[in-house]
Each structure stands twice: as structure tokens, then as C-alpha cells.
Amino acid sequence: MTANTEVAEKLESYIRAQFFVADDDDFFTRDVHLWKEGYVDSTGAVEVIAFLEDEFQIRLPDEVLFDPNFTTINGMADRVAGLIHG
Amino acid sequence: MAEAAGQEAERATERQTAAPPSPQPGLWRELREAYALHERRLMNPAFWAVANYRFGVWSARRGFTPWRKLTSLLYGWCFFWIDLITGIAINREAEIGPAFHLIHHGNVKIHPEARIGARCGMMHDVTLGLSPGREGAPVIGNDVFIGAGAKIVGPVEIGDGAMIGANSLVINHVPAGATALGVPARAMPGSRGAPKRQVSSTKTQQ
């Protein structure tokens, strides 16, 4: 659980800084659909995956791009935490 | 009442930090400054546009009504022809700080509500405008460089010293010192202000 939160925290701060998410944007949460709501575009998705791979020294399969759970910060954190410990 | 006044004062200070009002150095000095920045060439259309903006601001401040109307008429006439010939439309209601440099002329549109700080540089094909559904116009800080073709729309704030890459579409706030690039604009990887990424050494060795 703690690994999840740590990953989610790092990912959230990365996305906020990289994609200029305003601090007062109430709509942006860890459960918001990042692609659908326009926070991250298609090239941004690749950047996010590259960030996760570099930051946590893991290898994400290409299929994660089509994974319906891999669209929110919490969903990504679950997947990454599973890979770190798995 | 006091609360409203407080809010107004707060807004005023906000405005000052975003775009400090020029110390009103007089039209002649402003025109000379613009002339010096624009390659000292009278035939530079970017100079016409900036000079006409400065003239428009100056004319709107005239106290004597017939004089204000006459100079405003001249400003409006020049505005129309400069817009037609060069595509540069800088409305005099916009606030632009001193030493504004329009580096290349052509197709620059600045909304009347937009505010630009001091010493900003702007290339051609730049639009500062509104965005449907979001109230407010862009506020640009000091020492900002805006690349060719960049569109900055909606109530966004560009921090001091930021750089906007060419052809970027800026719809979010850009922090001070950051380099924004892309459609929609985001922090350019590796630039100042961008989130640090550790480069994995193990993966490159594999």
C-alpha cells in the first residue's frame, strides 16, 4: 500500500509539473482519466511511461497503453507497484 | 464593502506583479525606445505597429477631449491600415510594459484585455486571445520570449522569464523560468523548471 502511495505521489508531481496542471484545478485528481480528459496527450503517454520506467527501474510492456486501468494515476501506481515487488 | 475594496486592492497588486505599469516616460521616449529596439529602421512594419500602440495609449490619456478624439481618430486610422498591411493588431487597451520587441512583423493579434510585462520579445504569428468557456485573457510576465506561431489563449499566466516554443498552444499556466513547448504546451524535457528525471544507467548497459 505504501509503495502505491509513493508511486502515485511521484507520478502526480511529475504530471503536474510536466503538463502544467494548475494548482487550483479541482478536477484533477488521482482518479481522473488522464488521456480522455486531455491532461496527457498521445506523445505525453509515452513520456509518462518513460518516466515510470526510468524512475522505478522497471520495464512496462507496450500493452499497458491499452489497459483500461492504466489511465489514472492510481491505476498506474497499482501496476507499477505490482511490477516493483513482483 | 471593505471586503470588496480589499479584493480590488489585491487584484491591483496582482496586476502590478504581472505587468508593472510603465513609469510613463512620455511618448517621445517610448517611441525612441521602440525605434532603437526595432533595428532603427523606420520602414520596419513591426516598428509601425508598436509605435502606433504607444501613440494610441498616449492619445487615450489626453485630458482635452477634442485633442483626445482627434489623436484617437488618427490612431484608429493607422490601426486599420497596419492591421490590413501587416496583420498586426495590438489594441491600445492591452497593457504592454516597456521595451516590448516585436521581432518579426506579421499576423500578431493581441486581445484588449491581455497584459504583457516589461522587456518581452515576440515573434510573428502570435495570438494572445480568449478561449470559449473560460473567462479572461493571458497575462504575460516580464522577460518572456514567445516563439513564432505560438497561441496563448484563455486566462493563463506566463511567469517571468519563461519561454514559449514556436507553434505552441498554451492553455495552462506556465511557471516562471519554464520552457513550454507543444500542442497543448508542456514543459520541455530537460529545460529549466521541468521535472528532473533520473536517467537509468542499468537499462542502457543492458
Automatic annotation (TrEMBL), chain A:
This is Acyl carrier protein. Pfam families: PP-binding. It comes from the Bacteria. Residues 5-84 form the Carrier domain.
